[in-house]
Amino acid sequence: MLLSAFLSLTCISAVLGGPLAAESLCKGPQEVVSTEFIGANKNVKLEHISCNTLASSQAIKHGTSLQTRQVPSVCGAPCATTCFTPSGGGPDPNDCHIIADALRFDSQNIGPIFQVSNGTSDVLSLSFSSCTSFFLNQATTPLNYCRTDFASLIDFIAPNCQATQNAHGGLCVANDGRWFVQVQHV
Predict the structure, then answer these.
(1) 6 or 35: which carries more pLDDT confidence?
(2) Which residues belong to the signal peptide in this entry (predicted)?
């Protein structure tokens, strides 16, 4: 699988200080810009969240000097996975898989790529039952990302960051720090 080529799973305390609820992603007020339901059954909630700035603990400064020269597509970009410790309270991997399947369905029926604009102020939040996943753009430019890559990360993180790994969800931070995908309990 493509993910095994570039994911490094280390179940240690999260680089960003633990799982982030949607409310804690923003420093100051946040706004839900849009809400829709995606997937074949329209049962996965997708929210586009905007905030002025990220909470200070979320800011990652890697790669900022190169961003203007790089293509905004980060499909296939490597990231490093970290699990949130200690164990207990993680999402049901089956619920997370429903989110991943909804992304795959939309990839085939809407388009393979989605865009997250405005750099550090934009978050996509997907939720189903016990599982929530975020894609957060930390770059200063818009980013394009592949729905199937997002789905694969969800399917990788959810079952590999559970109680058996002394974890309760996790995230995968891009090697250049421009984005991350997080999976956690709602």
Answers:
(1) 35
(2) 1-17
Q: How many CB atoms lie within 10 A of CB 62?
A: 14
Q: 126 with 104: CB under 8 angstroms?
A: no
With beta carbons less than 8 A apart as the criterion, state whether 114 and 147 touch. yes
- Hey, which residues does 134 pair with through a beta bridge? 125, 182
In tens, the pLDDT along 123-182 reads 899 999 999 999 998 888 889 999 999 999 999 999 999 999 999 999 999 999 999 999
**Cα atoms found within 13 Å of the Cα of residue 24, Cβ hemisphere only:** 8
- What is the pTM for the complete model shown? 0.79
Angle between helix axes 147-160 and 93-109 (nearest 10 degrees) is 170
Query: Collapsing DSSP states into helix, strand and coil, what is residue 22?
Result: helix
Q: Which of 52, 42, 178 is nearest to 98 (CA)?
A: 42
Q: How confident is the model over 59-86, as a mean pLDDT? A: 68
- The segment with the largest mean pLDDT, out of 15-19, 73-77, 120-124, is 73-77
Write out the two tokens for 134. Answer: 């975020």
Cβ density class 16-52: b for 16+ within 10 Å, e for less:
beebbebeebbbeebeeeeeeebbeeeebbbbbbbbe
DSSP per-residue string spanning 96-124: HHHHHHHHHHHHHHT-SEEEE-SGGGEEE
